[in-house]
Amino acid sequence: MPTPLITLNRVSVVFDGRHILDNVSFSLYRNKITTLIGPNGAGKSTLVKTLVGLISPTQGKIQRQAHLKIGYVPQKLKLNENLPLKVDRFLKLTQGATPEAIDEALALLGATALLKANLHTLSGGETQRILLACAVLKKPDLLVLDEPVQGVDVSGQLELYNLIGKLKETLQCGILMVSHDLHLVMAKTDEVICFQHHICCSGEPESIHSHPEFVALFGLRESQQLALYHHHHNHQHDLAGHPLAPCQHEDH
Fold it and tell me: Which end of the chain has less neighbouring CB within 10 Å, N or C?
């Protein structure tokens, strides 16, 4: 059994007497994408912030591998729109970022053309690539992505999920991805954790969609089977998510 990058052991977070996280235990591993899914208000973002050290647990322990490097992409980026800020200047704010490292990160994410772009004018997909570049600059052992496709259309979401899979292979890192999406993310992950303040169930995508607690949480009838979404196409998209050539789609 490989050594976990990070382990949560019976972790709880209590705000104003309310358990936002309740007795949560799981481990994350290198070369594995784990996706945390759950409805709005389930405590997913609190769990992420606790895992990366922004919130201290009320109870329980978090064990991290020695010298663990975490790349974190938050759910939202709040910027002063009156402050001019180009992509290269933004990326230089990352500690230890060199011009060479920035060029390498942007190339890995297919975003080299955005180096001198105004950060405020980027599309949703372009912004997410730049936020990923910030995380990649740290050469992380673990990437933590809180709703990484938020504000991106379906076509752009597919491209980003494929890109995240590429990052896992290239960086040889573990990935924790948070999502409230079902169909798209199920086809792009190795393990699913179904979450609502506590872990309802967990497992491989092929098995988790018929678990009674999954069915109860997402309001699906037990007779329904959640189809895993597979998307194949013969075209590419630009950074804004627009197709570069005519395409044919095959969805299952």
Answer: N
The answer to whether position 186 is within a domain reads: yes
Position 1 in a domain: no
In one letter, which amino acid is 49?
K
Q: CA 222 to CA 117: how far, in whole Å?
A: 49
Cα dihedral sign, 93-97-102-106? negative
Number of domains in the chain: 1
How far is residue 11's CA from residue 50's CA, in Å, rounded to a whole number? 9
**Domain extent for 76:** 6-251
CATH of the domain at 38: 3.40.50.300
Q: Which residue do the tokens 């978090």 mark? A: 62
143 part of a folded domain? yes
Q: What is the pLDDT of residue 183?
A: 65
pLDDT tens digits, residue range 76-91? 777 777 788 999 999 9
Section 209-232 average pLDDT = 52
Tell me the one-letter amino acid at 92. Answer: K
Q: Answer whether residue 171 is part of any domain.
A: yes
Distance CA 70, CA 43 (A): 20
